[in-house]
Amino acid sequence: MEYVIEMRNIRKEFPGIVANDNITLQLQKGEIHALLGENGAGKSTLMNVLFGLYQPEKGDIYVRGNKVQITDPNIANELGIGMVHQHFMLVEKFTVTENIILGNEPTKQGQVNLKEAEKEVEAISKQYGLAVDPTAKIEDISVGMQQRVEILKTLYRGADILIFDEPTAVLTPQEIKELIEIMKKLISEGKSIILITHKLKEIMEVCDRCTVIRRGVGIGTVDVSETNPDDLASMMVGREVNFSVEKQPSQPKESVLEVQNLVVEDARNVPAVNGLNISIKAGEIVGIAGVDGNGQSELIEAITGLRKTKSGNVMLKGKDITNWKPRRVTESGLGHIPQDRHKHGLVLDFSIGENMVLQTYYKRPFSKNGILNFSTIVNKAKSLISEFDVRTPSESTPARALSGGNQQKAIIAREIDRSPNLLIAAQPTRGLDVGAIEFIHSKLIEERDKGKAVLLISFELDEIMNVSDRIAVIYEGKIVAIVKPEETTEQELGLLMAGGKRKKAGETS
Amino acid sequence: MKILNGKWSAITVPLLSVMLGLFVGGIIMLVSGYNPFVAYAALFNGIFSNTYVLGETIRQMTPLILSGIAVAFAFRTGLFNIGVEGQLLVGWLASVYVGLQFEGLSPFVHIPLAILAAGVAGAIWAFVPGLLKAKYHVHEVITTIMMNYVALHVVNAIIRTYLLAPGERTEEIHQSASLQSAFLESVTDFSRLHYGIIVAIIGAIIMWFLLWKTSTGYELRAVGFNKYASEYAGINVRRNIILSMVVSGAFAGAAGAMEGLGTYGYMTIMPAFTGVGFDGIAVSLLGANSALGVVLAAALFGGLKIGALNMQSVAQVPTQLVEIVIAMIIFFVASSYLIHWISNRVNKRGKI
């Protein structure tokens, strides 16, 4: 069997660490091959070697049977290797076509021939079923369509080996479905795909074979049809992983959060939250299920004081906190794990230690008469780092230098440590690997068992089903149904999230 | 190449830039028919050879420290204060005005009062761009530049209308407000060295302490790095933007007081900007926006400017050449991004 790409025994070192050691990856023609590993396992390094951004210390690369030296991304392009980056490399102000042809513009008498390019883009997009509007500006189109533009970019350059770097991390469930269709279509048109991911479900759904790497070492390659998610997970993590979150039935007590008839407008002054009611009791986790953009962000921002409400009330432990400033809300007993950890959760250029006191730096013992007490800050950071297993060289390391999972653990440590009555966790496991997800879920449940109220917002239905005690479905700014996870199915939730009604009347509790 | 990247880069990049700047200056001298070795020897002697030039160097660096601190402080909190020049001018005028008033005060009251007035004037001048930035998102670079021109002409108009004395300038300030020191002058062979250097060093210490040791500094830096996370943490972003500009402007105003109370003891009608405020940007850049770095960079610039006078008289090299050297140094510091990029590329390929 000839492989379109064969990477044999690749070793790549960086000062102080071996990022890849003895990794072999063989891509057959016409297959979707998964590259599976935890965050920081060395997946990206391996792909950067293939793409010519790094030179390996050891090992050989063969493309279509020929040994090659890829010293430059241009060589990778010439060999027909294209990369669909996780963080899109698109010019916001340019149109779809302009982005696709950038660097390879067809010209007519020295001028860019946009008409011809548009036709060509249209033709490729039809051939592979990649629906895009060639004349739309990037800033005006959805994330899913932006990703299709990225794919078109590689196809326009004649790639027949496509590397997808965690393509589903930024997509909604619907868009993920579309992407999977696209990948299948690409294969049927004779392309070969490497899919970098840590989502086992996707591998089981679309991939033919899967190569697993763990801490930089190649563990092996398996046929997807002969394996199951549990085996893949233990190959990736190196131990048994518990998928079904273990928890006792909840014992809800007094009400902690009461939201009544809340109306919140979004940035365009359109009501994003529109007459929403919800109540969360001490000792329970309420999960909010919904498609992105149905008011989840605005709801959190209104509760936490980051956005003004139009009308309605937010009550925390019986106190009306509507439109309080963020600090006052925080001090009255609210912890918030924000949706975007880089934008809101951390000051990336601050050290981990400084980030650990982001909510408390101005209070004793961290600050006295306006002077910071660094020894107590360092001690607090050290104890949180060890308690929450934040993997960092030291507490003075900049937050930027940590992996996503450890950044998230630092935020969770900070928020839980203040022992808030209400903990809001917005997409707490986004982009994290199974090990970190397991840890974070257990921490949320631990808080619940301590008698705290937890509000979980997630676009991952698995997470909502596994962790929540009650599920509230949000649709167009309203809670349209409240169900118990053991009494519902993903199908039913999906229907409710799309605005459908429950089949059995009188079931909403 | 690694020394240009790691934790030492804040030291190695400026040092290398200074050397490259002097080197390029030497080439320009050669091309122009001067002997660079003679010229640089004269420059060096012009900084260190006797107590007079040493005193003048310290005097020259005094306002540069404060204007550099002003720029660095704003920069550390995410703002570009290009208006140091204007804030310095209003500070200068305010210090001279207070120095002219209040006859018979003790120097221990009068001097701090005059410096305070300068700081307040600079702070008010910087408050306007700060407010516009915080409330209406007007970019501070634009407004601070424009405020420079307003300052220049307003200051001149005030002197001309209310404070004019013979010689297109104000009267001399009262002795009780003066930073000039017969003692310092006598030990430096009658240079114009004055007590302002102490004020400047205190200013540098204040900057360091405020930014790194206080909860206010924590807030200011947090807002500078990430205003969304700051908002999430309950920090008042608008207030901190304004505060940052106000503190920066106060440093700039104090720099003006060094000229008004120290070097000159009066203020003239200004035909053009002093340049000290703009040099502050260069000092801050070369000093990697740190308090100690700014003091060192100000010493270098002060020395070069004073040494240039000797270079002209001994080696007949025009003083403008030192301006070119300074410009080249800044050019190379600013290019450190390029240097980083090149060294990263080289490192990545594993070949040096």
Please describe what this structure looks like.
Chain A has 509 residues and is an alpha/beta fold. Helices cover 32% and strands 27% of the residues of chain A. Chain A is built from 17 helices and 24 strands. In chain A, the strands form six sheets. Chain A has a six-stranded mixed sheet, sandwiched between helices. A six-stranded mixed sheet of chain A has the order 18-21-22-15-23-24, sandwiched between helices. In chain A, a hairpin with a 2-residue loop joins strand 16 and strand 17. The termini of chain A are far apart. Residues 505-509 of chain A have low confidence and may be disordered. Chain B has 352 residues and is mostly helical. Chain B has 15 helices and no strands. Chain B has a domain at 59-293. Chain B is globular and about 60 Å long. Classes of the chains: A alpha/beta (509), B mainly alpha (352). Chain A binds chain B through residues 53-55, 304, 306, 325-328, 330, 336, 338, 343-350, 354, 358-359, 361-362, 367, 370-372, and chain B through 213-219, 221-222, 225-226, 228-235, 348-350.
Average pLDDT score of chain B: 90
The arrangement of helices and strands of chain B along the chain is HHHHHHHHHHHHHHH
**pLDDT averaged over residues of chain A:** 88
Evaluate the radius of gyration of chain B: 21 Å
Q: Give the chain pair forming the largest contact, with residue counts.
A: A-B, 29 and 22 residues
Q: What sort of overall outline of chain A do the alpha carbons produce when their principal axes are compared?
A: globular
Distance between the termini of chain A: 59 Å
Shape of chain B: globular
* Estimated structural class of chain A: alpha/beta
Distance between the termini of chain B: 8 Å
Topology, number of strands of chain B:
0
Task: Throw out a few tags for this protein.
heterodimer, A: 509 residues, alpha/beta, six-stranded mixed beta sheet, 17 helices, 24 strands, globular, disordered C terminus, B: 352 residues, mainly alpha, 15 helices
